[in-house]
Structures are given as structure tokens and as C-alpha cells.
Specification:
By secondary structure, the protein is an alpha/beta fold. It has helices at about 1-10, 25, 80-95, 110-120, 170-175, 215-225, 240-250, 260-275; strands at about 15-20, 35-40, 55, 65-70, 95-105, 125-135, 150-155, 195, 230-235, 255-260. The chain binds S-adenosylmethionine (SAM).
Length: about 290
């Protein structure tokens, strides 16, 4: 018990905390190689264009809901500014995630090409590109496009391509199956197309909503195969706290950042009420 306490006091990380502030500035205050895995759900920069997303807070006759723009200041930047913004957080993620770890970045065609380009510019190797197939996507209302029914996730690592050290639980990835995923069977290799419905449970929405909230089962799958029990997870863009909640449920620690009080409040409420995968006396392990 004494050892655990001393380790906690010595640990330079604000462990299991959501910090209010700009993640780029805040990440600079943390020591290099502090994290095992990062889950990154950045602004997609959708609010500046004519892109529409689903807002189920209102009803539209005949469709059971309403399409509205995610009009948020944090999601609206000129292209070059967005490029510089992504370059800045990617270089901090590269510094903070250990070469034995990895990171996951969410996006769509609007932003993922920019992020892919920056990763290559910064000599960061992409492990896989995952297509998150959203079976229950809402139909396209304009009739001028195909129905958008997937997002892209880039999985990368901060080690070198010559000496890949990142943790991947291959056996677990093979053994897993998910009741809602029609593409993955237990005992078969996990493919790069994940069939994960985007709907959220009542518990996931119990303390408020976020316009781009991710389903917890999607994040748990990433952590299941890339993080070890007791690892510490970096979450630069917390939103409603999905990544931190998934980390806690999987027996992991987290450090998160978020600009807006209203989302920090939702995230902290969710964290207070979610199951803790860590046992009572588990603390930050020596490696962390
Ligand atoms: C795409 S959302 C994340 C949603 C989250 N995955 C969830 O499930 O709720 C991005 C979040 O990042 C926050 N944000 C934007 N720019 C930020 C910055 N520079 N530093 C910290 N947070 C930021 C926004 O307020 C927003 O809540």
C-alpha cells in the first residue's frame, strides 16, 4: 500500500483527470513517453462547409428526426489553419505516446486525408486504416449523393518502421466476436472493416449529449486489442468522455483534455457512474 502511494505521488501525470484547456498547450506540459495508447477524436472541420450531420434532438415529419449542421466554433477553421492545428497535436501525440504504444485517429474524407498526409510528413507509420461501417446511417435526403455510411480510423504507432514495438493482442483480436458485428466471427482474424452500429444506449446518453459522440463499443474494441490492463490512455479531445469511460471500463487509466465546461461536466458524470475495471488497490503501474 505504501509503495502504491509513493508511486502515485511521484507520478508526474494528472492521472484519471480531465483537464480544461487547449490540448496542444496542455500536452506540452507533460513528459515525453508518458502514454501507452492515444484515442483521438479531433474536430473534423465540418462546420465550415455544407456538410450535414444527424441531430436527433428534433423531429422531422416522415423521417423521425432532423438533419442539422454541427455548428461549433471548435469545428470551423480555414484549411491551412486546420492543417497547422492537426500538425501541432500530432507532433505532441508522437512525443507523448511510447514507441511500445499506438494511437487511433477518427475521421471522414473531409479531414482524414490531411491527417494521413501529416502522419507521413512526421515519419509516423500507419498500421491500419479501419473502415467503421455504420449500418444504421440515416438516408441521404438530397438524393444528390450516396448515403454516407462509414467513417475512417487510422491506427498508427510512434516507433520506427525498422523496429516495430507497438503492443497488439493478436490472439485476442482473433478470438473476439461481437453480437452486433456481422463481419467478425470468433476464431477468425479481425479485418479492417468493423460493423459497429452508431446507436448509443440509454446509459451512454444519461448525463447529456455531444453532437459527435462515439459509441462506447467502438472505443472498447480499439482498447481491447491495443492496451494492457493498467495502461495509461491519452485523450486529447474528450467531448462527452466516451474514450475515458471505455478506458475505465477496461481497467485502464486516462488523462484527457477538453475546451468546453459543458462537455467536461457530462464526461465527469459518466465517469462517476461507470463500472471500474480497475481493482481497489490498482494504481499506476511502475512502467507508467
Ligand atoms: C469530435 S469531439 C469528441 C467527441 C467524443 N469522442 C465523444 O464521444 O463525446 C471533439 C471535442 O474536442 C473539443 N476540442 C476542440 N478543440 C480542442 C482543443 N484544442 N483542445 C481540447 N479540446 C478541444 C471540442 O470541444 C469537442 O468536444
Amino acid at each position: 500500500m505504501t509503495d502504491t502511494l509513493e508511486l502515485e505521488l511521484e507520478n508526474p501525470l494528472p492521472i484519471d483527470t480531465i483537464i480544461k484547456g487547449n490540448c496542444i498547450e496542455e500536452m506540452k506540459k507533460l513528459p515525453s513517453n508518458s502514454f501507452d495508447v492515444a484515442i483521438i477524436d479531433p474536430p473534423y472541420n465540418l462546420s465550415s462547409g455544407g456538410n450535414w450531420s444527424w441531430d436527433n434532438s428534433e423531429k422531422l415529419a416522415g423521417f423521425g428526426g432532423n438533419w442539422s449542421k454541427v455548428m461549433e466554433n471548435w469545428d470551423n477553421m480555414p484549411l491551412i489553419e486546420y492543417f497547422n492545428f492537426c500538425s501541432a497535436w500530432i507532433s505532441e501525440v508522437k512525443r507523448l505516446v511510447k514507441p511500445t504504444g499506438s494511437f487511433w485517429i477518427h475521421g471522414t474524407y473531409h479531414n482524414i486525408g490531411i491527417i494521413n498526409f501529416i502522419l507521413q510528413l512526421q515519419n509516423i507509420e500507419i498500421i491500419n486504416e479501419i473502415v467503421w461501417y455504420k449500418r444504421n446511417s440515416f438516408p441521404n435526403l438530397s438524393g444528390r449523393r450516396l448515403t454516407a455510411s462509414h467513417e475512417t480510423i487510422l491506427w498508427g504507432h510512434t516507433g520506427t518502421a525498422k523496429k516495430r514495438e507497438y503492443y497488439f493482442d493478436y490472439e485476442k483480436s482473433k478470438s473476439l466476436s461481437f453480437p452486433e458485428d456481422n463481419l467478425k466471427q470468433a476464431g477468425k482474424q479481425m479485418r479492417t472493416v468493423w460493423d459497429v452500429p452508431n446507436n448509443k444506449s440509454k446509459e451512454e446518453l444519461a448525463y447529456g449529449k455531444h453532437p459527435t459522440q462515439k459509441p462506447i463499443r467502438l472505443i472498447k474494441r480499439m482498447l481491447d486489442i491495443s492496451a494492457k490492463y493498467g495502461d495509461t490512455i491519452l485523450v486529447p479531445f474528450v467531448g462527452s468522455g466516451t474514450d475515458c469511460v471505455a478506458a475505465k471500463m477496461n481497467g485502464l487509466h486516462y488523462v484527457g483534455f477538453e475546451l468546453e465546461d459543458k462537455y467536461i461536466k457530462i464526461a465527469n458524470e459518466r465517469l462517476k457512474h461507470c463500472d471500474n475495471g480497475l481493482t481497489l488497490f490498482d494504481s499506476v503501474s511502475e512502467e507508467n
